[in-house]
Design goal:
heterodimer; A: mainly alpha; 20 helices; 2 strands; B: mainly alpha; Four Helix Bundle (Hemerythrin (Met), subunit A); 2 domains; 73% helix
Amino acid sequence: MDVYISDILLNAPFEIVVLTALIVLVLESTRGTRPNISSWTSIGGLSLAAVAALTNLGASVETFGGMLQSGGFANYYGALFCISAVMTILFSRNYFERQNYHRGEAYILLLFATLGMMVIAASNDLIMIFLGIELMSICLYVLAGLFRHRDRSNEASLKYFLLGAFATGFLLYGIALIYGSTGTTNIASIRTAFPHVSHDLLFLTGSGLLLAGFAFKIAAVPFHMWAPDVYEGSPTPISGFMSTGAKAAAFAALIAVFSRVFGPSENAVHQIIALIAAASMIAGNVVALAQSNLKRLLAYSSIAHAGYMLVGLAAGTADGQIGVMYYLAVYALMNLGAFGIIGALETENDQNLQMDDYAGLSEREPVLAACMAVFLFGLAGFPPLAGFFGKYYVFLAAVKARLLWLAVIGVLASLMSAYYYLRIIVFMYFEKTKAESVPISVPMSVRWTVIFCAVLVLLFGLFPSVIVQTVLRVLF
Amino acid sequence: MTLESVMFYVLSSIGIASAVLVVTRRNPIISALWLIVNFFCLAGLYLTLHAQFIAVIQILVYAGAIMVLFVFVIMLLNFRDEHTLFERVTWKKNVAAGLGLAVMMEMIYIIMTAAYPSAHYFSRSGYIGTIENLGVQLFTKFLLPFEVTSLLLTAAIVGAILLAKKKMD
């Protein structure tokens, strides 16, 4: 393989993130470094990488001997991951301080996890997808168990690790079988070989196992069992990062493998994806109705949202892909914002996470309550917020692809979801503050990040074409 | 029958037998010892597939390092009564056994019915699995995955230290 200067220049966002991670690693090992220095260095590096990614949204080019697919598609996701990571760090700084965790190593792992996600989105080879998923997951396993003195955090980390390792086994086995039937791990070559192997049982089994591995990472039913416990036990901003970044990365891999290889043709894999989507939407929303812990509630809602997004993939058309990519971006903003607010209001020892703790929040914290309401309305899919258009695009794609039953289930499921999202809003606006609730001071950096998210959710809802045009440019 | 297929049948039958013994023995140490037999059979199978390097690594890493770890953990856990591990057979276990059987049937069905992949993908020369060939592949075609692996290991080391370090502050 020859490496050209252009390979290195085209992949600038990766290199910036790698360099930042290594710099922070050295900074952390230096005696007397304050966590503030690490966090601001990370934020600076990630912002730079996001800018580098956003300046190159052109057509995709194969780099590093066909290992990576650099260009628009990869950079769209790259920017999404970097921005999510920046927001996660902004929320974490204050959160870690309040939970008496005064170290900066977490930011190194966060940077490496972001790098893993970017590798997944850019990979043009199943080996690279596997490495990216491992890089992301190993960092997330550790981040979930960051608070070592807490049982719940340990439980989350161990559960995520064991089940994640199991899912990795599926993934690798699937890759091995696909390699066995096509003789290559390169996605472009697999696509060329697809007409010859499309009815080969070995290939279909491999694809099924691959799908199971990815479904675990996006927390879709029936591979969702880990999500509620892990999201509940992990540090709150990290839960937000897992439910947005990790999910978006796995979706990027799903699009890269299944949409690129299988194309819009009718086949068994699309039917399986449709079934998984329907099961996720129903199960996620039904169980979420019964939750009173907000982190758990958002975990089940994230299972349901994985279902909505899978609807777009089940359609298998370009419309569906556009819908999924739009949905991922706005979902990341809404969910990160919601987890950010929950983290900002959380007190020590997992207190202040119940729904009735939010009673009367509109009087105590009018700005945060208003932002939370924006996120929740967005997640429920009320127009004109961004969440509405996300659902609109994926359901429209499903209807166009003659999957009317799936779209009907989706609409009914999101109607159901409105109940539990609105319940939180009712608590915030129409209930009296509990007498024993303690006042919390939320620093300006967290406030402004939350407001920024809320404004973007509003703007992307009013002008969805901003993102859709970008996605169109990236995909075609 | 060629010598190769004789080797295959001998190694795979010992391998399957030892794998069954691993899960049926009550004493965890004996299970672990049967697992070593299984690892050696697998290494032999790799050799018949011309994967010399993987065969050696299988012995070194699995039969060597990982087994030591297994035995160590079993000794450290110090089961007073091994039988407690086997006492409860719940409906969940029965369902799991049924599902496992179904998956095995499916796999047998797939292997029986699948069209064999065309032979030209597989070079039959003994050269394919040598360290030299592996190294050439690793430093030419798969250079980028090789480099990314180094980052993966760095991240794993940071994570391991973060979780295992004695004092936090």
